[in-house]
Amino acid sequence: MRYDAHIHMLLDGENWRAAIARHADAPDEAYIRAVLARYQALGYTRLRDGGDRWGVCTCAAHMAGEYGIDYKTPAFPIHKAGCYGSFIGCGYENLSEYGALVERAAREGADFIKIMISGIMDFDRFGVITGEPYAPEEILELIRIAHAAGFRVMAHANGARTVQAAAEAGVDSVEHGAYLDDTALRAMAEHGTLWTPTIVTIGNLIGCGRYPDDVLKPLFRLHAENIRRAAMLGVPIAIGSDAGAYRVLHAQGAEDERRYLEDILGEDSEALLRGERAFDVWFT
Fold it and tell me: pTM score, two decimals?
């Protein structure tokens, strides 16, 4: 089975502002069909979108069956107002507003809830994650509310303590997961958290000149080592590319991610099989 556990149909891997502008008035159906055809040509049958507030992912989900693709979406990602995620998601000021967004996602046909609970890697400075991390108590409440509404939860999360808190709160999948430590990895293993490490978003930047390689290369090595350690601990690892991110093209990005993970894990193919089995439940 070929699948990509994390894509953004909204974006194109080249210029995020121009990509968003393409769909500003309404989802560009011709563009969406071209991307779905690209996945179909490479044999992809399952896609999980990280969501967007313009309805592009929902439009894609409605079309995907024509291409033999099972397509899951959160409708839109949710973030705290003033924190990372405003460029693509919907923000909340308090837990009451968050609960209302969960209800709205349900009305819009969401298959799961996507929360954005950290910033992103600063590719110019090794060890730096943008923005302030969410408090563990808030992470727990976000996941509890979504679970109570009957949803699985995908969490955009970087940083050891953020990922640890999400795993301990019962999050269903962690996306990205930069700068983890053994405690965070063990928490994911203990709670059976699906991890989508999206290492392609680092690897495909190396040598492009946009960011310094003396930051990217050690970041890639650290992420790769954490993937190996996670596999040893029994963490299910999913193939997800974050397709649409810079230099991560739709369909090709998943092929690149698979190659990176196969190189990193070597003969430990069971790690990817564990991830595939854990990802299966998102489609039942």
Answer: 0.97
